[in-house]
Specification:
Layout lengths: L3 H7 L6 H23 L19
Amino acid sequence: MKNWKTLAEAYGLGIPESDIDRLAVPLDGLEEAFRRLAASFPPDTDSAMIFEASPQAK
């Protein structure tokens, strides 16, 4: 799992420590859920998705 406090400090985000402590729990949960999801993809799955937005028709 990532150390969210260290990352916030490294990026110079200026987030108070009490807020980082409060945010770390849901961020850890999201990271765990996404890791499980990513691990479920077959090895030959392309992990990059290309999205091209076309101009809206008027």
